[in-house]
User: Fold this.
Amino acid sequence: MNNKRYYRIATRLSVTVIGFTLIIFAAIMLLEYQHIKKINIHDTIENSHEKISNLAIRISGQLTEAEVALSNIAAIINGNKLPIKTLKHILQSIVQNNDIVYGSGIAFKNIDHSVYPDHLMVYVSQNSDSLNVQEITDRDYDYENAEWFTTPEQMGKGFWSDPYFDHEAGGRLMVTYSYPLNDEKGTFYAVITADVTLKNLAKIVDELKNDDYSFMLSRKGEYLAHPIVGKVLAKTIFESAELNKNEAFNTIGKDMIKGNTGTINFNAKNKLSYAIYTHIPKTGWSICSIISSESLLREVNRSAMIELIGFLVGCILLFSSIYFSIRKSLSPLEKFSESAKEIAIGNFSVELPKIECNNELMYLYNSFDYMQCSLVDYIEELKNTTAREERLNSELNIAHEIQMGMIPKQFPPFSDRKDIDLYAILDPARVVGGDLYDFFISDNKLYFIIGDVAGKGIPASLYMVITRILFRSAAAQSSSPREIVNSMNYSISEVNESNMFVTLFVGLIDLESKELTFCNAGHNPPIIVSNCQNDISFIKVTANLPIGLMPYYNYCEQKVVMESGAKLILYTDGISEAENKNTEQYTNERLIAAISQCKRKTAKETVLCIENSVKQFVDGAPQCDDLTIMAITLGQL
Assistant:
């Protein structure tokens, strides 16, 4: 179990180191990846622009070669009516000497029938390893209305036609460069042509191997070359954009047929792609290369993956070295753990493991050694302290029992009398307290007292006991509350070296006349509840001093006549000044409100109702002062 704990420490430390290393290097690698990614995208796009520009120049150059060849031949033929055999040789040389040219021909109009047959077209084309030479006179082949024938006649210069399918001469998809021929009078009489198949153009476009795919557009947006052969001259880029619901292709097509060069990024099948395009001079055609972001970043991602794998392998090796190094450094902790267990079960003389290195473990060894040396004395002192506390607690419990035994606890106290209902509680804040109450009946008079010693704990409890004894003694000598309080004040003041004092309310009720005679010595004024009018009010008391302060102070007494069924409620300031967790006091207003809820109840129910109201208000806050309540009801309710 201990080994596992030390291994966990080593693991946590190793993981922490590796974790921070991973975070730092991951951040560096991420920043580096983003930087390289940006550079790679820029460089790849630039390279693609350069490739398609070179390809456009190459196509344009080959087309220019065909243009130059035809213009040179036209200069030779113009004004000369060469034999058909010679024309065939000329056309053969054009096809043989120009790789891009599939076929070449001469188509006549308004010819001299003495030299050439009517509606003649001489055409030479490639056929595997040989050349195919044709003389086309079929009038079903209406070349005189073809674009490649009529446009040069009208313009008087060379012209590249739009793509078309030639059923007679070529029998395939092609574009034609046609150049007008004039006789010695300068009259147009024929067109010499050079045909380039779209298949040859597609082969050149396919040389862009590093791109996802490439295509070439005509001046009208038709596909001249495309990986999907079925689209060539069958669809325009605008139709593809509408079919695939991709507005980006519509934008690309419009910019391409304008002859612009540029780059547009777009989303295709939830994948970012780039369209890189340029125009081919003279023809009005354009080439476009489509590259996806995956293709752009393929090499970057491969390099990043290799770096990541290398980094993870390095982290594993670093983790292993750190882990075993920490385990070795922490191995003495196992012996310290065993020594700590022995000390915990009381074997304070157990031998501690020796530490040779002057590091933190040496400080730990010194601390254990110091603890081992001082623990015996501490345990002995703790035993003595515990014993003293136990004796003190025992004595306090005995004092509590003695103190509580001196106040009346049997209720109802006068079970044989129906003219009085009395109930009281005393809840000290500590084991012993300074509150008191007492009562007894003599000569059909109820003598009662409630008081609060200034202070808490044992000193207050001693004064409480003395006060209760003095009350019983003084009440046996006099039936006047004033004289009882004067006697108690003199006795306590004479021996009050600690300057403590007691607030008292001493009362006497004549159970026949219902007259209450009382003397208040600085205590809280009692509350009287009228039976007839259900009024709740504080009794107005004379402000006398608490007892114990001045031995010759002359106290005065007061009298109140109580009606049958009236209720007298006495309490200490532990009730009105009880505090909740927010240090708010219970107050006299809440006390009156609580009494109003139980004014028609018995003395016991009234006392318990007030006590419950105070407990709900303090809501578990620590009790700061003793709580004492007494309720007296005269006659039946």
